[in-house]
Design a protein that fits this description.
Layout: H1 5-9, H2 12-29, E1 40-42, H3 90-94, H4 106-126, H5 130-139, H6 141-148, H7 152-166, H8 168-184, H9 191-210, E2 213-215, H10 217-240, H11 242-268, H12 273-277, H13 282-288, H14 297-320, H15 356-359
Antiparallel strand pairs: 1-2
The structure holds fe (ii) ion (FE2) (2 copies).
One fe (ii) ion is lined by residues 163, 166, 202, 205, 256, 304, 308.
Length: 360
């Protein structure tokens, strides 16, 4: 793949010529693009800084459709995100690790089992066979790579599907707590905002991937069906046992951290060459305030993984609290601010969630 940054800076005539050359080269060098049109197409490069392409670097038939182009209006220049994203440092993001909270109660075990079943289904649907690949890799690395290697397209399918369902639990929980507060005429103690913010953040993950890919009809139908089932299942589950749902989401987020960690490792190992060249879309640069020079796909995955680690922590913490009485520790002022406590950003982290006795 040829970087296009030089081409975008060239004068108009040479820009057109470059575009033609790039089109021809991409057609030759990327025969695999669009192999699974019913699933997803992924954008190969993000040549223009605002995410709009002045020319296509993909063959015409695989050009990425702009799902939500920015709408020009007479008076409005820009609409800011409703929940500004907290700042993360690179040291904090690099310190994010895969972690697992041991299932201690029956409700924990039920939540963990439910996540394992879902994970199995998603692996099957998206062709993700990490365990098998690792096992085969021990005896025959070449065969393992040929048979099970995750490609950029496969990862993108997984990410889009994952993010499209990940934004539901926070919205369901926030909505139910909002209704409960009004119905019972009681305070909510600050949980609603964090839950809605989580679902907003997940939707930003999805919108970011949508700027880099184009899901096909099959994928869109899967998302539609999954959302219908998923929303209703969570709605009833949260009414029955909110604590179990928070634990379940905590375990789900553990899986999300694993998935994004593998993608980062695969980029570092040179297994995802198309993503080495890929730049983060403008929507992501604005939302995470990604610093100049650190706007690659890898950087983007670091931010997203850090978000998932925060969801993991928040939901495990919520699963440890008294659902009716306890205030939201992520929205609170502490009597002793020097003592480590839950925060919205990554200042203090606790992978397996804060215990009630330490925060309330
Ligand atoms: Fe996410
Ligand atoms: Fe998440």
């Amino acid at each position: 793949m040829i970087p296009t940054s030089a081409a975008t800076r060239a004068p108009a005539a040479s820009k057109r010529a470059s575009a033609q050359i790039l089109k021809s080269l991409n057609a030759l060098t990327n025969p695999s693009i669009g192999l699974r049109p019913s699933f997803i197409l992924i954008q190969q490069l993000q040549p223009h800084p605002v995410g709009r392409r002045t020319f296509s670097t993909s063959p015409t038939k695989t050009a990425i459709k702009e799902f939500f182009p920015q709408k020009e209006t007479e008076s409005i220049r820009k609409t800011e995100p409703a929940w500004p994203h907290p700042a993360y440092t690179y040291d904090q993001m690099n310190a994010v690790t895969v972690a697992h909270r041991e299932a201690r109660t029956t409700s924990d075990k039920f939540a963990l089992r439910a996540v394992k079943v879902l994970r199995w289904g998603l692996d099957l649907a998206t062709g993700y066979k990490h365990e098998k690949a690792t096992a085969l890799n021990v005896h025959d690395p070449a065969a393992a790579n040929k048979k099970y290697a995750m490609t950029e397209e496969k990862y993108m399918i997984r990410n889009v599907f994952l993010e499209s369902v990940a934004g539901v639990p926070g919205m369901v929980a926030g909505m139910l707590r909002h209704l409960h507060s009004m119905r019972r005429m009681k305070r909510d103690n600050g949980w609603i905002e964090t839950l809605l913010e989580e679902s907003y953040n997940e939707r930003m993950h999805l919108l970011t991937f949508m700027k880099m890919s184009e899901p096909g009809l099959f994928m869109r139908t899967m998302v539609l069906g999954a959302q219908g089932v998923w929303f209703n299942a969570l709605f009833f589950a949260y009414l029955i046992s909110p604590r179990t749902v928070h634990r379940f989401v905590g375990y789900l987020e553990e899986e999300a951290v694993i998935t994004y960690t593998r993608q980062i490792k695969d980029i570092d190992a040179g297994r995802l060459p198309k993503w080495e060249e890929l730049e983060a879309p403008q929507i992501a640069i604005d939302y995470w305030k990604m610093p100049e020079g650190n706007r690659s796909m890898r950087d983007l995955l670091l931010y997203i993984r850090a978000d998932e680690s925060k969801h993991r922590e928040v939901n495990h913490t919520f699963g440890n609290l008294d659902q009716k009485e306890d205030p939201n520790p992520y929205n609170s002022e502490y009597k002793d601010p020097k003592k480590p406590h839950p925060t919205k950003d990554l200042t203090h982290t606790n992978e397996i969630g804060w215990d009630r006795k330490d925060v309330i």
